[in-house]
Amino acid sequence: MNKSLPDTFFKPGTVAVVGASKKANFSSGIPETLVKNGYRDRLYLVNPREREINGMPVHADLAAVPVPIDLAIVVVPAPQVPRVIRDCINLGSPSVVLESAGFGETGPEGALLEEEVRRLLKGSQTRVIGPNCLGVINPHASFTTTQVNLEALRPGNIGVIAQSGTFGNILADWAPTQDLFFSKLVTIGNRLDVDETDCLLYLADDDQTDVIVLYLEGVKDGGRFYEAARNVSRRKPILVYKGGRSQAGRKAAASHTGSLTGEDELYDAIFRQTGVIRAASFQELFDMARVFSREPLMAGPRVCVATVSGSFGVMTADVCTAWGLELPDLSPQTVCALRDIAPSWMNVKNPLDLGPSGIYDAAIKAALADPRIDGIIAVPVIPEIVMQKYTELGVDVGSMFGDPQEWRRLAPGKPILMFTVGGASWCDHVRKVYGADISLVSSPENAARALAASCRYGRFRAGG
Amino acid sequence: MNKSLPDTFFKPGTVAVVGASKKANFSSGIPETLVKNGYRDRLYLVNPREREINGMPVHADLAAVPVPIDLAIVVVPAPQVPRVIRDCINLGSPSVVLESAGFGETGPEGALLEEEVRRLLKGSQTRVIGPNCLGVINPHASFTTTQVNLEALRPGNIGVIAQSGTFGNILADWAPTQDLFFSKLVTIGNRLDVDETDCLLYLADDDQTDVIVLYLEGVKDGGRFYEAARNVSRRKPILVYKGGRSQAGRKAAASHTGSLTGEDELYDAIFRQTGVIRAASFQELFDMARVFSREPLMAGPRVCVATVSGSFGVMTADVCTAWGLELPDLSPQTVCALRDIAPSWMNVKNPLDLGPSGIYDAAIKAALADPRIDGIIAVPVIPEIVMQKYTELGVDVGSMFGDPQEWRRLAPGKPILMFTVGGASWCDHVRKVYGADISLVSSPENAARALAASCRYGRFRAGG
Predict the structure, then answer these.
(1) Which of B238, B279, B240, B326 is nearest to B446 (CA)?
(2) How many domains is chain A partitioned into structurally?
(3) What ipTM goes with this model?
């Protein structure tokens, strides 16, 4: 199983939907979605009980399709799956996304069926993703084997591998609302053939993927994953959330995707040795994905926290320290430069509690220029009522903290993270002005953890 | 300093703004806000350099005001503060909110000024909140000593004590966007007189406050706080976020509100012994506030997790276990009842992975009725595209998971928490349908931590 994953999973020249149906069910939107995304002329529908769906002809079986099929999306009931897979193999289809459920996740009978398909595949050139999954989303080719909204097809540079189909769909809905965009998203389900390591290796060579994110309930082949992760980590960061840490979680995973999750400590050791970055929560996983996909790696542990609220300054300093980062004193030059322009009440320290000083942009630039500082966490906040006043006076409140693109130009090697909280219109402003350029994270904790991970991963990459 | 905090801080019959000014600055909106909230006929402005502001007369000093003043809001520059405080004492004003900055937080000179005011107060009947704060918001009386939006004045049952003024204002902006509403919010700043313990004791006796939330950088008088917290905890839950855990955080706190933060382990011990619930993050503090202000205390550690996404089921099971909760098997009766109505592919287990079964409401009701279950975490999710289809078919997607008010009636003694993630319109739906009745929390982690805290606190209340 060490042959590489074929491109046809992500950029098929021809696609069949086997089990296409007029009935409204989980799969009925797939042909429609493919047509909407420009695949009409290379799409073939298969179902012995249908003649035509939405004006498209339906073929009785795969053999009746007039062209070779690159990718078969299979949604027939589980008992019919072996027959369809046999057709795919016989016709030389290189790739199958098997979305049907009713296999190992449901009990011994389903497991037997899964085993039967596995036997059929042996020695063939056909690769299968699934069963019990929703397959592939490739925004860079507007291609998807599951019905998603248009927003989920906006291309990004984060490659995601998840086990569960529903989870993948929810992710696809949620990510764009957080300004997170994917290069590829694969849900692998029960992994009767293709597993997380195959996908990892594929994404490692994918030019559109800069960061690889895995949601795993268990690794199928520990040794192979270890080897692959160790190699891939030297080139691209791998972020992992591993479910099934607890006994209750492991039992749940067994009936969810039939995964044996194994001992958590073992995973910790594997991840540590292979440079894989482990996240402790869903939100942290994607906060990290954002930071790793946008920010340069942090060269050292020295952070400057720049805030308007002393309380958030204290909180952020606390969590940075808890995760092994340092808040050094600013260099004498930076302190002098800031004292020159700061109001008398302002303490020029780290964290930089800027209060209503108005020197936000200058302060962040000074911190970025400071050789003692490796990265920045900015916590701009402002009461809505103050914002309304400024807006009435014609001040562009959104950008009063400075120009994020200029910050980038000044210090392309230093990560800049931002966290904010407040009223709805303030948060919208920040997202609009900074969301595209600066990594907005969901909490001071996750800012600190992402920077600490960036620092650690930088050392791993340097061979330390 | 053991005399109780006077009501005049929260429900003053007469109010003066000392230092009212036409100039636009942090305090210029205060008179306007008071007028807008119905305080015009009991509001008096004081400033020797103004004659009239927005049609209201301005008095030269407090002695010139024709009526006794219940509460003086003082916003004059720091050096003028001792004179104003002397006036308040001489005129017998019971309460002063001193918002001016420039005291202990700025250095030795400011500390001397603070000491001078403290000496003046000795033996007087006048109590002072501040300096370096924004005072009080009392939504139940539409009263505020700081300019806030109307939404922040919607009354709730969470009483908040914070140190920093900006933080308080940001909280007031943010909370309504999260369906969190306050009974009182006090920012105490440098605490030259009134401190967190005074406020704690006031809120303990306040009928509109069910839960007390503290953001602290340090406790002023450890022994007194200990005594008060131990007593108050027996009646109302006290939730704390303590900033300044790390050395960097402690340094920041010192220049922020002049607080000596002390050793973190000591605080942990104090909180544990007094039944105070400590939150590890800002978000957790308010997720807990939501749960404690709405849910019954959890009678035992047994949770049922009901989800539509197996992945979120696994995650939630993991974090519940990590925080000491249990996911027991459902009782045989519950299992039988659910098997009767569940589709064949559904595993009737805990976590209840309901998938697209459609039996959401029935499942939650069955879990609520189960004597083996003490509380519920529901994780409803649905792909946007499925939601759109249901909506087209006329299904009320928002409430397809069931009627939260009916759940409450069925099991008034069991907490019900909900977490969701997904597209924007789905999240809006959930908030609209469930936000008012069920505790929506921001993550599976915080759901688990809040329930674990509820359980622990229940034991403390029972004397265990």
Answers:
(1) B279
(2) 2
(3) 0.92
